[in-house]
Amino acid sequence: xxxxxxxxxxxxxxxxxxxxxxxxxxxxxxxxxxxxxxxxxxxxxxxxxxxxxxxxxxxxxxxxxxxxxxxxxxxxxxxxxxxxxxxxxxxxxxxxxxxxxxxxxxxxxxxxxxxxxxxxxxxxxxxxxxxxxxxxxxxxxxxxxxxxxxxxxxxxxxxxxxxxxxxxxxxxxxxxxxxxxxxxxxxxxxxx
Length: 192
Ligand SMILES: Cc1cc2nc3c(=O)[nH]c(=O)nc-3n(C[C@H](O)[C@H](O)[C@H](O)COP(=O)(O)O)c2cc1C
Prior knowledge:
By secondary structure, this protein is α/β, with parallel strands linked by helices. It has 8 helices and 6 strands. Flavin mononucleotide binds at residues 10-13, 37, 39-40, 42-43, 46, 87-90, 122-123.
């Protein structure tokens, strides 16, 4: 087995982040265990992303209601979980232990097993309840990583912006995955 990553795609805007995360993971030879929430399927339609195309790339696809799936158990080993994009609803469920669907359950298990959980939380503006939730997640060990673009990289397209965020998020998984992904990322060399 090479790498194994659990990918959750939830109903926030930015479905392209989920799609590109899946593509890069497959490019680097990772086994991807995919869970797409019911609302993500609606948001995909709105944002012009084909659910079938996304699911076709995954190694295994789970229904969000399938709480008996392998990824809901800590005995299922993986190299980490990413939720891209992550809605505030799913972020809140994870923060407060409401594990009533497979995405929040798999995320909860990822944290309890001391593995990496990367959350591309997408909402703006944020009220103080959102901010408290994100602090709670950070204190629990999750990497809270809103997909906020950088411009010092001089992106020329939306694809460039998405690519940079996705690669930075994948690098947060650490270990061998980080090494491979960092080769695709240009390092900041400092000011001339
Ligand atoms: C087109 C569309 C865009 C949305 N964008 C966001 C968003 O950016 N952030 C967010 O937290 N929720 C957003 N939502 C609302 C979530 O989809 C909603 O809260 C849903 O209950 C999330 O459920 P899930 O986390 O199980 O996917 C959006 C919904 C739709 C239909």
